[in-house]
UniProtKB/TrEMBL annotation:
Pfam families: Phage_T4_gp19. NCBIfam families: conserved hypothetical phage tail region protein. It comes from Planotetraspora mira. Transmembrane segments: none annotated. GO terms for molecular function: structural molecule activity. This is Phage tail protein. PANTHER family: CONSERVED HYPOTHETICAL PHAGE TAIL PROTEIN (PTHR38009). It comes from the Bacteria.
Amino acid sequence: MDEDLIAVSVCFVVTIDGKNIGAFNSCEGLGCEVMIEQREVGGNNGMVLQLPTRLKYPNVKLTRPITKATADKIPMWLTSLAKGVQRKTATIEARTAMGEVIVAWGLTGVVPVRWTGPQFTLDSPKVATETLELAHHGFTGPGWGG
C-alpha cells in the first residue's frame, strides 16, 4: 500500500528538536549539491579531471499563512538566539490531506537565518503569510548515513 502513495502533499509539518512549530504549505530548497574541483593533469590533454570534494546544502524556505504558531513558537525560537546560537535537529514531513505522512526529511545543524512576516497593503488584499528560512548541515536518518 505504501508504494501507492504519491508525493502530492497538502502541507509540510515541521518539528524542531521534537517540538512541533506547525504546518507550512510551501517548502523550497530541500536538496544538496556535490561541489566539483577541476584538475588539469600534465601530459593528459584529452580531459580535465572532475573531482568531487564536499556537499553543499541550500537553505530551506518554509511559507504558510499566518497562524497561532506565528505568535507563539517562531518568535520564541528566534529570540532565544540572543542567548547564543545552538544548532538544532529538524524534521519536515510531507503529509496528505488526511494527515498521512508520505515522506520525512531529517535535517542536522539547523539554525534559523531569516523570518519574514506578512506585508499588509490595502490595494491588494491577499492572505497574510510568513516565511521561515533555515540553514542546515545536511540530512539525517535512514538512508542518509545518520
